[in-house]
Amino acid sequence: MTTPPPPIPTAARATRANLRHAYDLGLAGALGALFGLYLYVEGVRAESVYARDAMAGLLIGGSLGFFLNAYAPFRDRAWIKLSRSVATGAPAAAVGGAVGLVAGEIVIGIVQGGLIGRAASWAVLGLGIGLGQGIADRSRDRLVFGLIGGGLGGFVGGLVFEWLRLATGNRPDLVQPPGMVILGAGLGTCLAVVEQALRRAWVQVQSGRQEGRIYLLAPSISRLGLDERAEVGIFGDPTVARRHAEIAATADGYLLRDLAGAGTTKVNGAAIAGDHPLRDGDRIELGRTWLVFRHR
């Protein structure tokens, strides 16, 4: 007997998935920034302001990059994908954080401090980390999302940090931990919100272990399957092949290409062969896993 498809996600369900994604990235960013601050406080003893800033940016950026890149594979329990993502994302964000914080120190000196000065300084830090995220993903879309989200998150975090510092009479011991949490949470949340606002095409898993999970279709070719190197990793379904299908972005729209054969790739309940054009709201069936394609 054919299993009936799950209902198409309503606007409310899609909103819940987006909020969950923003919450998860915000939490990952907060933990990453706090851990980076701990490494900095315990391990850095440099005299030069710029040397301290470079080390702080390196450690905080690297820690943020680790947590932000590890969250999605960890949620999917995709351990190989986690190691690959962290191996590229953490070093890129560390370099971006080091350059960004040193540049931010120059900015705050030019504008002579204050709320806007601190916000601008941390916005530069956020830009560096966001740039690192985009480079690590090797995606032009994610590069743009990272720059915008990182800049916004850093600006908000810096603004609140400086307000707290002034409100507590310049007590770094009181301000630094909540300030780092705000910075990391702001970066993670803004990265998620910017991606959700600007993305052009994505798929949302409707059934199975990853129900509700949203995958951005940023590359020109997005692979779908059990392979942890796939852009859309489908795990927990033994009927899905390692390279089951792929979605290609073309000048005329998006095409779904079957790679598994045997009628196990379907669109709206009908098996496909070769390239099949996709329209917004189409249901994609891979083995026993259902996804919905979205495009705007």
Structure description:
By secondary structure, the protein is α+β, with helices and mostly antiparallel strands. The protein has helices at residues 11-43, 49-76, 79-110, 114-137, 140-167, 172-198, and strands spanning 201-205, 214-216, 221-225, 232-233, 245-250, 253-258, 265-267, 270-271, 275-277, 283-286, 289-295. It has a six-stranded antiparallel sheet, covered by helices on one side. Helix 1 packs across helix 2 (49-76). The longest helix is centred in the first third of the chain and has 33 residues, at 11-43.
In short:
By secondary structure, the protein is of the alpha+beta class.
Summarize the main sheet. 6 strands, antiparallel
Structural class by SSE content: alpha+beta
Write the element-wise H/E pattern from the N-terminal end onward: HHHHHHEEEEEEEEEEE
Mean pLDDT: 84
Give the CA-CA distance, first to last residue: 35 Å
Q: Which characteristics define this entry?
A:
single chain; 296 residues; alpha+beta; six-stranded antiparallel beta sheet; five-stranded mixed beta sheet; 6 helices
What's the structural blueprint in terms of helices and strands?
Layout: H1 11-43, H2 49-76, H3 79-110, H4 114-137, H5 140-167, H6 172-198, E1 201-205, E2 214-216, E3 221-225, E4 232-233, E5 245-250, E6 253-258, E7 265-267, E8 270-271, E9 275-277, E10 283-286, E11 289-295
Parallel strand pairs: 3-4
Antiparallel strand pairs: 1-2, 1-11, 3-5, 5-6, 6-9, 7-8, 7-10, 10-11
Helix pairs in contact: 1-2, 1-6, 2-3, 2-4, 3-4, 4-5, 5-6
